[in-house]
Each structure stands twice: as structure tokens, then as C-alpha cells.
Specification:
By secondary structure, this protein is of the alpha+beta class. The chain contains 12 helices and 15 strands. It has helices spanning 18-22, 27-45, 73-95, 101-104, 134-141, 147-151, 161-167, 194-203, 226-234, 236-242, 320-333, 336-356; strands at residues 2-16, 50-55, 58-64, 110-125, 128-132, 156-160, 175-181, 185-193, 216-222, 248-251, 263-266, 269-281, 285-290, 293-302, 305-314. Strands 1, 2, 3, 4, 5, 6, 7 and 8 form an 8-stranded mixed β-sheet that branches. A 7-stranded antiparallel β-sheet has the order 9-15-14-13-12-11-10. It is globular and about 70 Å long.
Length: 357
């Protein structure tokens, strides 16, 4: 029996409404629906988290502190997983022709996340790995809370005070609460309404430069997951390692996060905006606006890792051939190809170090 004490994030994704959904419905169909939705959650978690086990209608996962390189990455993961969950629910509903109660009641299902940061033991007994400790117990007890009762929310992300403090984010419109459990005492919690966030993301203006309208396209295949590539594109300290600029700094991050509306300014003149995020779809693409154009970074999962496409469109009123000529000159000036070669090299080195470590 091996034990390894760690400090890290303890995370649960729980399909809400499943207990009442099961009551009186056709068990075979209900189980098929549950399996498909759990698979969707697992696929969303795998690039960043270690799955511990499936627990009925919940997925339990963890991540050591050292494996989360940027403060907002876990919240990006929650939002991305929730979006894919909602899309999968809609997809199941669209393609079913069954009139049974289980299939008709699919829209009643939703999703909540629990995040706590603490200490735990990784225990391996006869090839079976479990996490144990008071913080593990607390994370599970938090599945039974008073958030829905107090707010009416069915879908939310609940952070303990320890978890939110560790993430170092100042989020807005959080519901504050106190939960109390026997032998574990009181714990302060902060919850985010995922329904409202989902609607914000759906209603947001979609701005994406397609290959057909791009004046320049740069493509690289990177041997890492979209989550890792996304972080290298958006963590300002990592960007400064591969982007060949020395005058960019991040400002205006809503709620302490990068996202739609965030800007990067010139380090030598705070009113000179170099880059503004106008569309933000975590792990899929984001689009930034510049004084002379729009740039979309698109991340596509491929067997080798991630296909990264940079599509740039010049927004000047020029003929198409002249826009492409100007863009090619700009790309040479800013050494765009060399930047992405450096990005591939740095990510590859990071992956090699993680594997050897």
C-alpha cells in the first residue's frame, strides 16, 4: 500500500436532477442517457484533471497544485465542460424518437461543479487508487448544500473559500453561503450561476475569422492537448516566452480573468490598446481585435495533439490582393512563423519535462 500526501484541487461534477429523473422512468433508457452524459464530462476533464472514479451520476477528479499553471484555467474548464454537456443534452433530445418518460425528461437534467482545495492522500491498494482525507470527505459532503434552495439555481459551480482563494480570482455575482457538516464544521462557499454564464456565452457576439476570409493563415501541429496549447496562448508570462514583443502587458481582465472584453496594452503607454478580445470560446477558439485587423486562434484536436490555426484578416479598405500583400509584409516584420516555431518547441519541451519528472 503506497501513500502520497498532496496538496491540490478536489473536483466533482454532479448531474443534478438525476435521482428524481430515475423515479418511475425506464431504467435501460435512463442508464444509456447517464452513460453518454458522464462520458461527455470525462472527456471535458481529461486534458487537465486526473479522473479518480465515477460515483453514480458524478465524476470525481483531482489536480495537484503544480499541474494548474494559470488562475482562470479551471473556470475555463468548467465553462467548456458545461457548454459541451448542454450541447450533448440537446443532441440526445434531438435525435431520439422515443416517447418514453426517460427520454422526454432529458431536459430536466443539469450539471453542477464542486471545487475545494486541500490536502489528501493518494492511496493504492491492490491496483485500485483512492483519495482519502478530511478534505476529500468535505468535497463530497458539499454535494449536499443549500445553493439551489437559496437561489433556485440548478446549474452552478461551488467554490470553497480555500478553493477560490487558491485560484486567486475575483469573480462577480457570486452567491455567498455557509455550509455546516458534522465532524467537519462550517465552510464558507461561493457559487456561480452557470445558467446565466451559459446564456452570456451563447448570446455573445460571435466573431471568427474563417480561412476563406483570412488574408494570412499560419498553421502548426503541436504535440499537446488543446487545454495546454490554450494556456500557452493566453497566459501572459508564457506568451512573452514565444511572442517576440517586449511592450505588451495584460490589463482590464473582467473578474481577474482573460475573456471577452479583456485588453492588452502597450507597456509604454497605458492608453494604447494593442489587443482586445472580442470572442472567447475556451479550448476551441478566440478572436482578438487589433488596430489594423482581426486574428482568430482556432484549436482543433487531432491524433498528434492539436492543430493550431491562426487566421488573420486586415480590416483596412483595400483590394484583397493588396491586403494579402500588406499582411505578408507584416508577418515577416513581426516574425510570425518564427514565433509559432518557438511556441511548438517550448510546449514540446514542457511535455518532455513533465514525462521525465
Amino acid at each position: 500500500m503506497n501513500q502520497d500526501t498532496r496538496h491540490g484541487y478536489l473536483i466533482l461534477a454532479d448531474i443534478t436532477g438525476y435521482t428524481s429523473y430515475l423515479a418511475g422512468v425506464e431504467l435501460t433508457h435512463a442508464q444509456d442517457v447517464l452513460t453518454e452524459l458522464l462520458e461527455q464530462i470525462v472527456e471535458g476533464f481529461k486534458p487537465l484533471l486526473t479522473i479518480v472514479k465515477l460515483e453514480g451520476d458524478a465524476v470525481f477528479a483531482h489536480a495537484p497544485q503544480s499541474k494548474i499553471p494559470r488562475d482562470g484555467l479551471l473556470l475555463d474548464l468548467f465553462e467548456s465542460t458545461y457548454l459541451s454537456f448542454r450541447d450533448r443534452v440537446a443532441s440526445i433530445l434531438r435525435r431520439t424518437t422515443c416517447e418514453c418518460r426517460a427520454c422526454k425528461s432529458i431536459p430536466d437534467l443539469d450539471l453542477k461543479f464542486i471545487l475545494h482545495f486541500g490536502e489528501y492522500l493518494q492511496q493504492n491498494v491492490s491496483g485500485i487508487t483512492e483519495l482519502v482525507g478530511s478534505d476529500v470527505n468535505l468535497a463530497h459532503r458539499l454535494l449536499k448544500n443549500h445553493v439551489s434552495e437559496a437561489t433556485g439555481w440548478k446549474a452552478y459551480a461551488l467554490f470553497t473559500d480555500a478553493g477560490l482563494s487558491q485560484m486567486n480570482l475575483e469573480l462577480e455575482n457570486l452567491h455567498e453561503g455557509i455550509e455546516a457538516y458534522e465532524h467537519l464544521g462550517e465552510v464558507k462557499t461561493y457559487s456561480l450561476d452557470l445558467h446565466a454564464r451559459y446564456q452570456e456565452l451563447i448570446d455573445a457576439r460571435r466573431v471568427f475569422v474563417s480561412p476563406e476570409e483570412a488574408d494570412a493563415i499560419t498553421t502548426r501541429t503541436i504535440p499537446a492537448s488543446p487545454v495546454i496549447v490554450w494556456d500557452w496562448l493566453n497566459d501572459i508570462q508564457k506568451r512573452l516566452q514565444w511572442e517576440m514583443y517586449d511592450d505588451i502587458r495584460p490589463v482590464m481582465r473582467p473578474g481577474g480573468r482573460i475573456g471577452a472584453g479583456a485588453s492588452n496594452h502597450c507597456a509604454h503607454g497605458k492608453n494604447v490598446v494593442l489587443e482586445k478580445i472580442v470572442d472567447w470560446q475556451p479550448f476551441e477558439y478566440y478572436t482578438a481585435e487589433y488596430p489594423m485587423g482581426l486574428r482568430s486562434h482556432q484549436l482543433l484536436p487531432v491524433p498528434e495533439g492539436t492543430l493550431l490555426n491562426e487566421n488573420f484578416k486586415l480590416t483596412m479598405s483595400l483590394p484583397r490582393w493588396l491586403r494579402r500583400l500588406v499582411t505578408n509584409v507584416m508577418n515577416r516584420q513581426f516574425k510570425v512563423k518564427q514565433q509559432y516555431d518557438t511556441l511548438v518547441r517550448l510546449i514540446s519541451e514542457e511535455i518532455t519535462q513533465d514525462k521525465s519528472g
